[in-house]
Amino acid sequence: MARYIGPKSKIARRFGEPIFGADKVLSRRNFPPGQHGNNRRRKQSEYAVMLAEKQKAKYTYGVLERQFRNMFEKAAKAEGITGEVLLQNLESRLDNVVFRMGIAPTRAAARQLVSHKHIVVDGQVVNIPSYSVKPGQVVGVREKAKSLEVIEASLAGFNHSKYAWIEWDESSKSGKYLHKPDRADIPEQIKEQLIVELYSK
Questions:
Q1: Which of these, 176, 89, 191, lies nearest to 136 by C-alpha position?
Q2: For residues 73 and 29, which has the higher predicted lDDT (pLDDT)?
Q3: Quick check: 16 and 27 in contact, CB under 8 A?
């Protein structure tokens, strides 16, 4: 499965946000990368602003261009506001749900746990990170993976009450995906309307 494997701090600095989780470099050098990053004050075109917003969403959720466009087209055909539906579909990806449940510290780590068959959905192993979790389904850690250090470290002290659309059961290390989140509940700072305008051009 294709995924971005380049320098993550450079991407975080480009957007001025911790796209891939906590970033020590960003706290020290909170300006764009490159020779003139600290002095660049050039005004961006309307298209550049929209493109940057799409890139930010892709990097945040770990989705490449073709897959992202397919998700947009699917959202455009669905009922509701296209931008919100797009974000809800991204939030419903299995790797993202695993991340939101605190089973993994980052989406990249969640993707790896899924790919390595450490995650089950309704008791069945699912190793496809892009799998779309449906409301009512239970996502959990496979029995023989519950003692993995990365999972235990991630779950330790994680606040499971911060996402209203997830119900966590500590005893079984599993969570129920109650419903798709409302836009107001999704914490990502993404201006989805700009993405809709970009694809509508």
A1: 176
A2: 73
A3: no
Residues 6+ apart with CB under 8 A from 74: 89
Q: Which amino acid is at 4?
A: Y
Contact yes or no for 42/187 (Cβ under 8 A): no
Q: Containing H/E element for 96?
A: helix 94-100
Strand partners, 125: 120
Q: SS3 for 138?
A: strand
pTM score = 0.81
Beta bridge partners of 141: 119
In angstroms, rounded to a whole number, what is the distance separating the alpha carbons of residues 49 and 67? 21
What would the two tokens of residue 146 be? 């519950």
pLDDT in tens, 135-188: 999 999 999 999 999 999 999 989 998 999 999 999 999 999 999 999 999 999
Report CA Rg, the chain: 18
pLDDT for 98 beyond 60: yes
Cα(167)–Cα(88) distance, rounded to whole angstroms? 17
Torsion angles phi and psi, residue 140, rounded to 5: -150, 180
Q: What's the rounded mean pLDDT across residues 51-68?
A: 93
